[in-house]
Structures are given as C-alpha cells and as structure tokens.
Amino acid sequence: MKQFYYTYNKPNRNINIKQYVYNIGSYHYNWHSDLELLMVISGEIEVCNNGVTKVLEEDDIILINSNMAHATLAQKPDSIAMVIHIDPVVLKDYYDNSEFLFFELCSTKQQRNNIAFSQIRSYLSEMMLSQQRNTPEQKLLFEKAFYSLLHSIVLNFPPKEMHSATFMLNQKKLSAIDKIIKYINKNYKKKITLDKLGKESGYNSTYVSQIFKSYLGINFYDYLTRIRLREATLALSQSSDKILDIALENGFSDIKAFNSAFKESFGKSPSEYRKQLNNENRKNDTDFKKEFISIEDRVVNEKLLKYVSQRENNSLRIVERNIWKIEKFHEVEKTIQGVTNKLKEITKDMEETVGYFQNE
C-alpha cells in the first residue's frame, strides 16, 4: 500500500526534499542540517524547538531551522502531521551566507488562519497531492508549488542572519548534546545521574544541565524519564511481561515511580493503557520508526484538498477586493472629473462676468 511519503532530488538545481504524513507517537528527539516544516493535520502536538516548548493544534505550522535540536510528542491520540525536509542549499543561489540564515515561523491561535499560513498549508498540500501521479503536468505543478512555498516563506517571514561566532557556538553545543543523548539512549536502563553523565561525556554536570534546558526545553531528568516511558510503553504493547518487570527493565526504580510517571504523561495507568490497546496499536515497530499514512486515507486527503481550496478562495477574495478597489477608484475618478468640469464652467462664467463689467 502506497503511503504519503516521497523524496525529490535534483542535485544540479540544489533541490533535495523529503516530505511525508505520519502519526506522531512517543517522545522523539532529533536534529539535522535540513530546514523542517511541520504542519499539524489533526490532534495536538508538543514541539520543543531551540529550548522553547509549544503545543501546536490542528492547522498550526512551525519551521525548525537547520542544525536545531528539536523534539515532538503527541498530546492527543491519532495526532497526525505533515513534515517536509528541505536542504537549505537551495537558498544559496538567492542569498549570501545562506548557511547562517534562520527563520522565525510558528503560527499561534490568533494567526493560524492568516493568508500567509493558509498559503503555506496549501502549497505543502499541493506538493504532496501532485506526487500521487507521475505525469509531466504533475511534475510542473509540484515544482510550481515548491517555489511558491519558498517565496511565501521568505516574503512573509524574511530570514535573519546569525552571527558566525554564534553559529560556531551552536555547532559546539550540538556536538556536545548529541554525545550526551547517545549515551542516555544506550544506558537508560541503568542508573544515570548528572555527575555520571558529565564524567562519561567529558563535560561538567552544570554544563550538561544547561544545554539540556537550552536545547530541549526540559531538564535532564525529564528527558531520561521520557526515554524510559517510550521504551516501557513499547514493551506494554508488544509483550505480556508483568508491569513490574517492564518498569524495572526500563530503568524505573519501582512500580510506584513507573505508575506515577506514566499517569502524569498519559492520563492513565499502565494497566489501563494495556487494556485499551488494539491490534493496530501493537503494529508499532521496535525502532519507533515513523508510521506513515496511506495515500488512501480519506480524512487526510479531504484535509489536503481543503487546504488547497482555501488558498484558491483567498486568492479569489483578493482579486475581488482589488476589482472593488479599482471600481471605487474609477467612481472617485469620475466624481473628481465631474467636479473639475464644474469648476471649469464656473471659472469660465466668472471670467465672462468680469469681462462684461470691465467693458461697461
């Protein structure tokens, strides 16, 4: 079964794209060199970007800059998002020092229906839908939508330039946190403290604590708990082991600590969660790979078509407003012309009257 997933590469034109629609699942940390646009199609998603945590709702959009640490976590069941990765090298032909550029783009409840965000949703949807058929017309439509997307972003959210020293410092911190994250992911079942992590990574505990908060928006212990919960949740769905054994196997000190952390994160106990699992939930793979949505999914298709039509309707309204403005301009122009003609008549009458009295 085909899924909403594709890659599009044109190296000679600096185009390297990956786009997909998927179910947002458990806590997932990531960083990469691509620009990433995330659009919420349904549900509610917690996104931590550059140390700032936001909860995005349906139709919200966020842009995650190149080499920026970020993490996502579904806040509601069946939360679905569209994501596109764009190699920033595509901006090289248009901007000097493109590697230092960054954008500030994140919708809010008050802004999400603005024309700028409506355009972005529409172009993203058009790109995805055009990939379902491999025809010359669809390829042209895809590239048109892609360049329109870039234009809309740089027009409405002009890029800023990061100072080179700041860029190098960020790279150093990213390297540090990547080393720390890898250690935690490998050793989460064991007892880990900030001091232990500092010694293993070569950084002092204060520095480790600071970069966790600044890049992930949560402290070290919260991150460790989320990783343990992620693995324990998987075990609940894929094994028949006792809940106590699952808790201890995944780094929790006892069943009480596991139950407390689980309920705080998911609003239910591990046993309640296990009872609610259905066959579809149990298909999640052991590596937490993304669960891409089928291109036959009716709800997603309807939503993407809706996004496209909203832009067309907005464009029509803009045209109608412009036509109305032109018509009003012509009306005013006619009025001004009428007043001008009347003034000319009055002036002519006055000149004739003055001439008459002068002749007398």
Descriptors:
10 helices, six-stranded antiparallel β-sheet, elongated, four-stranded antiparallel β-sheet, alpha+beta, 360 residues, 2 domains, Jelly Rolls, 12 strands, Arc Repressor Mutant, subunit A
Molecular structure report:
- With 360 residues, this protein is an alpha+beta fold.
- It has ten helices and twelve strands.
- It has helices at residues 115-130, 136-156, 164-187, 194-201, 205-216, 220-238, 243-249, 255-266, 270-276, 298-359, and strands at 5-10, 15-23, 28-30, 35-42, 44-49, 52-57, 61-64, 70-74, 80-86, 101-102, 160-161, 291-292.
- Strands 1, 2, 4, 7, 9 and 12 form a six-stranded antiparallel sheet that branches. The chain has a four-stranded antiparallel sheet with strand order 3-8-5-6.
- Helix 3 (164-187) packs across helix 5 (205-216).
- The longest helix is centred in the C-terminal third of the chain and has 62 residues, at 298-359.
- The chain is elongated.
- The protein starts with a strand and ends with a helix.
- This is AraC-like DNA-binding protein/quercetin dioxygenase-like cupin family protein.
TL;DR?
Helices cover 52% and strands 17% of the residues.
By DSSP (H or I, 4+ residues per run), the number of helices equals 10
Q: Describe the main β-sheet briefly.
A: 6 strands, antiparallel
Give the N-terminus to C-terminus distance in angstroms.
102 Å
Global geometry: elongated
What is the CATH architecture annotation of the largest domain?
A: Sandwich
The average pLDDT is: 83
Instruction: Give the tally of structural domains.
Output: 2
Q: Tell me the radius of gyration.
A: 29 Å
Domain HTH araC/xylS-type: 178-276
Keywords: DNA-binding, Transcription, Transcription regulation
Protein name: AraC-like DNA-binding protein/quercetin dioxygenase-like cupin family protein
InterPro entries: Cupin_2, Homeodomain-like_sf, HTH-like, HTH_AraC, HTH_AraC-typ_CS, RmlC-like_jellyroll, Tscrpt_reg_AraC-type_HTH
